[in-house]
Task: structure prediction
Amino acid sequence: MTKHLIQQPVIDAGSFVLRPLTQADAAMIELYGSDERVAKNTIRLPFPVPPGATEAMIARVMASEFEDVWAMDASADGGPDLVGLITLERLERDQSEIHYWVAPAFWNTGHASAAVAALLAANPQASKTIFASVFQDNPASARVLTNQSFEYIGDAETFSVARNTSVPTWTYICKLS
Result:
């Protein structure tokens, strides 16, 4: 099964929607991703963002059958086209892993919580279990997860491209069925 055969849904998240990425999102992803506060809280975003990296990421995601990425788009209510990204990565045995980031201008506005809640409710990959991990120096992201019924299952380490080192993480699980 290839991505072009899979219709990634638009998901209502209340005051915004989660919609599939387009190449038109590249400029805003690069702008927000170039903020060290965003990049250092992600696994894959480099810092600084090299030329062409954002466009390559979007092309990779659009061709992937294992990873769905949605833009948090608030334009219908007069907000920006992109306030952050949320990803579901397919794993084996009806499992997925969720990743997300929100631009600093929208921190503490509920966007991350609403996006996670909407994605869990829609469950577009028909997952039975969703995993997540957050860097231990980012307790706000941990609260997003625990407020959405994720349960802490342990500590680990994950390599951060922006930090160029392994970073201690907290790992969470959410069982959907």
About this structure: Residues 111-122 form the longest helix (12 residues). The beta strands are 11-12, 17-20, 67-73, 84-90, 95-102, 129-135, 151-160, 165-175. Residues 26 and 57 are 9 Å apart (CA to CA).
